[in-house]
Structure formats: C-alpha cells, structure tokens
Specification:
Elements (H helix, E strand, L loop, with lengths): L9 E4 L5 H10 L3 E4 L4 E3 L5 H12 L4 E4 L2 H13 L3 H9 L2 E4 L2 H9 L6 E2 L5 H11 L5 E7 L6 H7 L3 E7 L1 E3 L4 H12 L5 E4 L2 H13 L3 H9 L4 E4 L2 H9 L12 H14 L3 E3 L2 E5 L4 E3 L2 E2 L4 H13 L4 E2 H6 L8 H15 L5 E4 L3 E4 L6
Parallel strand pairs: 1-2, 1-10, 4-5, 4-7, 5-6, 7-8, 10-11
Antiparallel strand pairs: 3-9, 12-13, 13-14, 14-15, 16-18, 17-18
C-alpha cells in the first residue's frame, strides 16, 4: 500500500511535460495537486528549426552525436519520421560515433536500432565534456541533441576547443499556456495556500519566478519560505539554480528523476515532527489535517480552528480567537462551543480539545496528560 504522507498537502506542479505523471505520483501519496505550467513546449513535429537542422545533419554527417536525453532523442526521431526523414537519419547515425548521457539516453538509442559507443554513467554533461575534451575535439564535427533550453555548457566547451558544433534542441520552450494562471499560482504561494512547489526544469523555475515578480508575489513567497511555511523542490541541481539565485534553498534529490523528486517531498513531510496529542500524532497541512494516520473530515472552518489550536502547541487559545476564525462576526460564545464540538466529533476523540473554563481551548498533548 502506498503511504499517504502527503495527505492534506497542497502541491503546485509547474511543469508542462510529464505533468500528468508527476501529478498522479503525488496524488497517490495523498497530495492535493494544483497545476500551472510556467512554460509551454513547441511540439517537435511542428518545429521548423529542428527539421532544418536535421536536414543539415543528413547533408553533412557529423563525426560525433551527443544524445543528452532519451525522450529528446525519441522526439528527434519522431520529428524526422513525420517529415519522411527517419530512415535516412538512422542510416547516418549508424555511421556516426554516438555518445549517450546516461542509461535512459542509451535505452532510447537502442530502441531506435542503434548502439551507443560510449555512455556517461554519471548522467552528467560534465562527464561528457571532460571525456571528449581529454580525447581532443579540435577539427571534429559534433552534433549535440539538447532538450528544452539546451543550456548545459557543451556547445560552448567544444566550440572553444576547436570543434564545429551543431545544436539540436528538441521540445523548445514556449510561452505558458495560461500566463494568468501562473501569476495566480505565485500569489497563492505567497498567500499561504500552497505547501510545496515542484520544478522539473531550470527554464521553468526561472519563468515561474519571473511571473512572481510580475504579480508582486516574490517577496511574499520568499518570506513564507524563510519561515518554513512552504517548501520548494527541484529535480536536480541545474533546475535548482534559478531558485538559489533568489535565496530559495530547494529540496534536491540525489538522482534527477521524477520519482526521486516525489520521494524527496514525501521524505521531507514524513520527517516533520507531528504534534503528539492524546489522540495520536497530528499534522495540519494546507488542505487537510491528519490525525494518527487518518485524514479528518473537517470543513474549511473546522480546519482553520484546528490549525489555530495546533499553532498554539498546547497553550490556551482564547475563545475570542476561535470566534475570529469562524465565518461572520459572531461574538456568541455558543458559536465557539459548537465549532469545538464539531472538531471533537470529526477527530473521533472528545479528549483532543480541552475546554479551559473562562479562558478558551487547547489541544491536549501527551506530555500534558
């Protein structure tokens, strides 16, 4: 059974590509997921520049082809196929030295009926650069298949060393499908409506931060991050860079995989200390509260009252503060009693919240019992 560590957490997904896969993985672990793609993508089959450069490869076969991503390589072959160029492209590649950045790139190469001549097992562009530069690239013709922005430093490194470099970018970034939705998502983070934000690309992270500036939300979301009220997570160190530049310290998994990204978020929330109440461990997130492993059936008002009590960590919350958390402007003590009674019913434990006569209410913690 998949754990529900993220139950009650609101997670914002900023990716376009593979967002459904990421969303499903987070939801399986209990998260409530919002989606606001910070960038769109130009479909490879409609990318005139990619096809133009593919024809250049066919006309002048290179000495070396560097494949940086499996999905990018597959996209390149698909685009060539849609243009009637796939057979010729595979024929040219079969006579070229192919370098793969990691096992996924190698797998895509093999799926196309080709073989990688060398694989960077570290899955880093740095290893590719180091190895090829040590071999010497002066006078060599190198084609580099990039994904997205293509900003991995390989083009510049090889060109400076005397190589002819041709860059093929598959899935180029474009404007977001809904710019207003992206700006709204940054405001939601600044307003405290989101527990975690996840990023899968550096251009996407940079674009989302730009949207936050435009929306006037950057200072607010940075303040919430510094207070520990919102978590940012990046799929790898390159993706993390735009966040670090504005003072955000994101979670970064050891491996640059979506599954690893999800596990990093799960591990973070699983490691947060719960309030040890008499009814079991309690965690209150943005969308729900989890008591002893069970998501409580609370209304929005009930959740806000419980959040107020949890924030006090066993100290007394005056009745006036409870009333202020309720809809309307009631000053009737009975309204507070009703809200607390409903909270007790939803928790399944009347002992969870204690009434302190003439003062207010408090959560009953284990150390106080």
């Amino acid at each position: 059974m998949i754990d529900q560590t993220l139950a009650g957490c609101v997670v914002l997904v900023t990716a376009d590509r593979r967002s459904s896969e990421l969303r499903a993985a987070l939801e399986r672990r209990g998260a409530s997921v919002r989606h606001a793609a910070a960038l769109g993508m130009v479909p490879h089959t409609d990318d005139a520049l990619l096809l133009e450069r593919t024809r250049s490869v066919l006309a002048e076969p290179p000495d070396t082809v560097v494949v940086t991503t499996g999905i990018g390589f597959r996209g390149w072959v698909e685009a060539a196929d849609a243009a009637g160029l796939a057979d010729r492209l595979l024929e040219v590649l079969a006579g070229t030295r192919i370098v793969a950045r990691g096992p996924k790139a190698r797998g895509a190469i093999q799926a196309a009926g080709l073989s990688a001549d060398w694989v960077a097992e570290s899955e880093t562009s740095a290893e590719i650069a180091e190895t090829l530069l040590d071999e010497g690239v002066a006078g060599r013709d190198i084609v580099i298949q990039h994904h997205g922005a293509g900003a991995d430093g390989l083009d510049e490194a090889f060109a400076l060393a005397g190589a002819r470099v041709r860059s093929l970018v598959v899935y180029r970034w474009g404007p977001p499908p809904d710019p207003g939705l992206v700006r709204d998502s940054t405001r939601a983070v600044a307003d405290g409506d989101v527990d975690a934000v996840v990023f899968t690309s550096a251009p996407g992270a940079a674009a989302w931060l730009d949207a936050a500036r435009e929306a006037g939300a950057l200072d607010g979301l940075l303040a919430r991050h510094r207070a520990g009220a919102v978590v940012f997570a990046a799929v790898g160190p390159v993706t993390a860079k735009p966040l670090l530049e504005v003072g955000i310290e994101p979670l970064v998994p050891d491996r640059g995989r979506l599954g690893s990204l999800v596990r990093a978020v799960v591990t973070h929330y699983g490691g947060i200390e719960a309030l040890d109440t008499v009814a079991g461990p309690l965690r209150v997130h943005r969308a729900a509260a989890v008591l002893d492993g069970r998501v409580l059936p609370l209304s929005r008002t009930g959740l806000e009252v419980l959040r107020l009590l949890a924030h006090a960590r066993g100290s007394v919350v005056p009745r006036e503060q409870v009333l202020a958390a309720l809809p309307g402007d009631s000053s009737d003590p009975h309204a507070a009693e009703v809200a607390i009674a409903r909270l007790r019913d939803a928790s399944g434990s009347r002992a969870l919240v204690r009434t302190v006569v003439k003062r207010g209410y408090r959560l009953e913690l284990q150390e106080q019992s």
